[in-house]
Amino acid sequence: MIAFYRALSVSALLSMCSFSYADEPRTLIEAAFGQSQAKTFCDDFDSNLCEDTDRAFRVGVSQLINTNLRANFSYIDFGQFEINGANSVAQLQISAKASAVAAQLEINAPIAKAAVYMRGGLAISFVEVKAFGQNFQQNIKASSSENDTSLDPILGLGFRLPLNEHIGLMGEYQLLMDAGNEETTGEDDVSFMGVGIQVTLQ
After folding, report:
1. Residue ranges of the domains in the chain?
2. N or C: which terminal CB in the chain sees fewer CB atoms within 10 Å?
3. So what CATH class is 26-200?
């Protein structure tokens, strides 16, 4: 009789696991909007002259691997960071744009109908830096532009809250580490924090 109850308990547990797996959306389309920040972009400049935040967005696809594991592929546009300084003698303008294409593994922890998740993976970072300087007294102008790509680690935290079978809310934080190239564009950690929606395809 004890063996029978054990077998029954195992069967029930397996049924619950397979039911949970079947109920988990297999493919999600995600879109999030928020704010980015370049960690050290303004370290050597007055905060009144430098802007290290901007509007940003991320779009991605999340594919179910098993109950608690997903593969996530996304594009993140971190926007543009700027330095603008001028006085009666000279003017300096520097801008840096950053974006990335990321592939991450995601571990989910269900909480009631919602879920929190952690992500980790690699991203191809695209960084463009432009600089312009002008000396008014000597009438000298100079400009430069650098573009580079790099393969960088990216980490993320977030949550999902389904509203119905097809649409849900999400919030997340992503950190792209050492984006750019130290020899050309320079390197910096760039973060994204935003909220958005998820659409279930399957």
Report:
1. 26-200
2. N
3. mainly beta
